[in-house]
Automatic annotation (TrEMBL):
Function (record text): Component of the exocyst complex involved in the docking of exocytic vesicles with fusion sites on the plasma membrane.
Domain Exocyst complex subunit EXOC6/Sec15 C-terminal residues, every copy: 411-763
InterPro entries referenced in this protein's UniProt entry, alphabetically: EXOC6/Sec15, EXOC6/Sec15_C, EXOC6/Sec15_C_dom1, EXOC6_Sec15_N, EXOC6PINT-1/Sec15/Tip20_C_dom2
Gene3D superfamilies: Dsl1p vesicle tethering complex, Tip20p subunit, domain D (1.20.58.670), Exocyst complex subunit Sec15 C-terminal domain, N-terminal subdomain (1.10.357.30)
Residue span(s) of domain Exocyst complex component EXOC6/Sec15 N-terminal: 44-213
Name assigned to this protein: Exocyst complex component
Length: 804
């Protein structure tokens, strides 16, 4: 059994040796040597080799005849091959001899082809290099001509198109190295031009603004037909926007290096006044914008431009410290601001995004707040109404100019309404001086007119309506003084001044009417009223002047409705309009007249006091008969003065003259009563009372003569009734009647106060007692003394009873 397995294993190994690559036979042989049957395997291997040898021998025997035949044929072919070889050698020799000429020609052709190829290569290289050189030459020319935007475009084309095609040449490397330097040079040059432009417009903004304001002023002065046409300024802007839109689109270029949609020369033929932007060459801005856009630095440029313009805005908006002194200072300030925003508006509409609407509006809001603050501050220093009015017109023109460019200006008009109050105050101060000058120059006497022309001249100045006066022949006198027509004319001038300020403020007729009426009321109630009070209260004003003031104010009061009509005519607002302000002129002139009347009463009483100070009564004079007494000299002078004074009162209203006359008589009566009751007068004789009675009769005679018309009966005598009854009681010694009828309405001495009577009796008692001592107690004096004592006692009892 073991021998069979060994034989099978050896057979497998032999098959494996036959079928396996010799490089992998090692493991197979190792398995043979590892076993115990090495000799047996060798025997089998030898037997297998002998079998293979036999098979090889059989195969060789089978193919040998074919091999012999092949050798025989090969020997035959060798002879023929030798012949062919000889022929080939001969042919080759002949061919070599014949081909030497051809080879020479071929060498020449080869050289020509190499030269042709080199020439073609050279031409091709030059075709790529020449555009580079030409473009670089063009770049140099553009740089020398300072045409930087086309130079930058050329530079871009040279760098990205031409140089890559040209290849690696030294001159190309030099050019490539110079490109960043050239680009930086262009950038710096463009920025320098922009700085020069910004400095130029800063210096010339005054002129730009002046031109823009002139255009706005010209626009305002056009008639309605012209205003229907588009503004020339807007037309120019539209054309410029169209041109710049074409030139600044995506991938576009400026129209030209010097004219990037900047100037419109053809417009100069259309208008005599050049456009504000025609004064400025904006090409540096457009060039710099295009250059920085191509360089990819547009944001840097925009930020720089806006930052610099903000700085310039702050400088422009800073007013000079003495701006308020002249109108030219304000005009220069406004021109600079208008010039600044005209430039910004032009930049806004001719560039795409360099400045936007939000940026411009932000700048304008900043400017507007600073402008309003500056105007409020500087206008507050102004005290000349003409300058304020000119300033207002300048502000309106300034606002209209900027409004034409789309800037909101409502705050400026609100500020003008605030300035209206200041203007009104300044007007009131000027008119206060004017009224005072008129009053100081007035002679306070009626105006004499000798001709019809003079009369018409005054009536044209003041609405006098007096049919009786017109009937009088020349020469004649107007009832009022020069103050009346001058003051009335000044009132109208004031109204005109108020109206001038209200113009162009976009106010309704009702608002203008209300403003004028309120200002006129202030003029009447404050300024004119104070001036009249000044004229009335000033020192050394005479009664005649006061009388004339009353006459003047009466006529001015009557003219108030003419002022109402005057205001209505210039504002076209009827006075019956709801909520319409009424003039307070009537009340003003009434107050002034009442003040003059009171001053007349006061002045008249003061004059009377001056005469009364001259009274020199002998309070201890002996009793005399009434026929031997005469009126005191001071009283005669006083009565004469009163008669002359009241004769002047004929032109006064009757009530005023009557009141003045009654006041004077009462004051005389009161003053004489005070003389009797003066504490310094301790003793009074009956003779002194008789003298006083004579003077009182003179006063009563004056009162009966009616120095002023209009008194009914003996009304004026009532002013002396207190003193008359007192003197009658003492001179007639009618104490029984007085004591019996005291307190009754039918009492003869109803106006005698018991206290007054008692005081006067006390003074007479002292005189009687002194006379009794001097007369060594005469019986008549003693009886009189007893009688006085008795009357005093009864009076004291009477007073005590009534007091209880």
């Amino acid at each position: 059994m073991a021998s069979v397995e060994t034989a099978a294993e050896h057979e497998r190994i032999l098959r494996e040796i036959e079928s396996t690559d010799t490089n992998c036979i090692g493991p197979t042989l190792r398995s043979v040597y590892d076993g115990q049957e090495h000799g047996l395997f060798m025997e089998k291997l030898d037997a297998r080799i002998r079998n293979h040898d036999r098979e090889i021998e059989k195969m060789c025997n089978h193919h040998f005849q074919g091999f012999v035949d092949s050798i025989t044929e090969l020997l035959k072919v060798r002879g023929e091959a030798q012949k062919l070889k000889s022929q080939v050698i001969e042919t080759n020799v002949r061919l070599q001899e014949d081909g030497k000429v051809l080879i020479g020609s071929m060498e020449e052709l080869k050289q020509c082809r190499v030269q042709q190829r080199n020439i073609a290569t050279t031409v091709d290289k030059l075709a790529h290099c020449l555009p580079v050189l030409e473009m670089y030459s063009r770049l140099q020319e553009q740089m020398r001509a300072k045409r930087y935007y086309p130079a930058l475009r050329t530079l871009e084309q040279l760098e990205h198109t031409c140089l890559p095609r040209a290849g690696q040449y030294r001159f190309c490397s030099i050019m490539a190295e110079n490109i960043p330097k050239l680009r930086m040079h262009i950038r710096e040059t463009a920025m320098t031009q922009l700085r020069d432009f910004l400095e130029s417009i800063r210096k010339h903004s005054d002129k730009i603004g002046e031109t823009a304001i002139k255009q706005a002023q010209l626009q305002r002065s056009l008639d309605s037909a012209v205003t229907l046409q588009p503004r020339a300024l807007i037309g120019r802007r539209g054309r410029k926007e169209a041109a710049v839109t074409e030139s600044s689109g995506e991938g576009g270029s400026p129209l030209s290096e010097q004219d990037s949609g900047i100037l419109d020369v053809e417009d100069e033929e259309e208008e005599d006044v050049p456009g504000a932007q025609d004064l400025v060459d904006f090409s540096p801005v457009y060039r710099c914008l295009h250059i920085y856009t191509v360089l990819g630095l547009r944001d840097v440029f925009e930020n720089y431009y806006r930052k610099q313009r903000r700085k310039q805005a702050r400088l422009v908006l800073q007013p000079h410290s003495n701006m308020h002194e002249t109108l030219e200072g304000y005009r220069r300030y406004f021109n600079q601001i208008v010039g600044f925003f005209v430039v910004e508006d032009h930049i806004l509409h001719t560039t795409q995004g360099l400045v936007n609407r939000a940026y411009v509006e932000e700048l304008w809001e900043l400017a507007l707040s600073k402008i309003v603050a500056a105007l409020r501050t500087h206008s507050s220093y102004c005290d000349d109404p003409d300058l304020v009015l000119d300033l207002k017109n300048l502000i309106v023109l300034f606002a209209d100019t900027l409004q034409g460019y789309g800037f909101p200006v409502s705050q400026l008009f609100d500020m003008l309404l605030e300035m209206r109050e200041q203007y009104g105050e300044i007007l009131l101060k000027r008119w206060n001086l004017t009224f005072r000058q008129i009053l100081d120059q007035d002679n306070f006497s009626p105006i004499p007119v000798s001709t019809e022309q003079e009369y018409r001249q005054y009536t044209s100045q003041f609405p006098l309506q007096d049919p009786e006066l017109e009937k009088l022949s020349f020469p004649k006198k107007l009832p009022f003084s020069e103050f009346v027509p001058k003051a009335y004319c000044q009132l109208k001038e004031f109204i005109y001044a108020c109206l001038k300020y209200s113009e162009d403020l976009h106010l309704s007729s009702t608002e203008i009417d209300d403003m004028i009426r309120k200002s006129t009321n202030l003029l009447l109630t404050r300024t004119l009223s104070n001036c009249l009070q000044y004229a009335i209260k000033k020192k050394n004003v005479g009664l005649a002047e006061l009388v004339q003031v009353i006459i003047n104010t009466t006529h001015l009061e009557q003219s108030c409705h003419f002022l109402e009509e005057f205001i209505t005519n210039i504002t076209n607002v009827p006075p019956e309009t709801a909520n319409a302000t009424k003039l307070y002129g009537t009340a003003t002139f009434k107050d002034a007249r009442h003040a003059a009347e009171a001053e007349i009463y006061t002045s008249l009483n003061a004059k009377i006091d001056q005469f009364l100070q001259l009274a020199d009564y002998d309070w201890m004079s002996a009793a005399q008969s009434s026929g031997g007494l005469t009126t005191s000299d001071y009283l005669i002078d006083l009565i004469t003065f009163l008669r002359s004074t009241f004769s002047v009162f004929t032109n006064l209203p009757g009530k005023v003259a009557q009141t003045a006359c009654m006041s004077a008589c009462k004051h005389i009566s009161t003053s004489l009563m005070q003389l009797l009751l003066d504490p310094e007068v301790r003793q009074i004789s009956i003779g002194a009372l008789h003298q006083l009675n004579v003077d009182l009769k003179e006063c009563e005679s004056f009162a009966r003569a009616s120095p002023v018309a209009g008194f009914q009966g003996d009304t004026l005598l009532l002013a002396f009734s207190d003193l008359r009854q007192l003197l009658d009681l003492f001179t007639q010694w009618d104490w029984s009647t007085y004591l019996a009828d005291y307190g009754k309405s039918t009492c003869k001495y109803l106006r005698v106060n018991p206290h007054t009577a008692l005081a006067l009796l006390e003074k007479m008692k002292e005189t009687s007692r002194k006379n009794v001592v001097l007369a060594q107690f005469k019986k008549a004096d003693r009886d009189r003394q007893k009688l006085i004592d008795a009357v005093i006692k009864q009076l004291r009892n009477l007073i005590a009873q009534h007091h209880a």
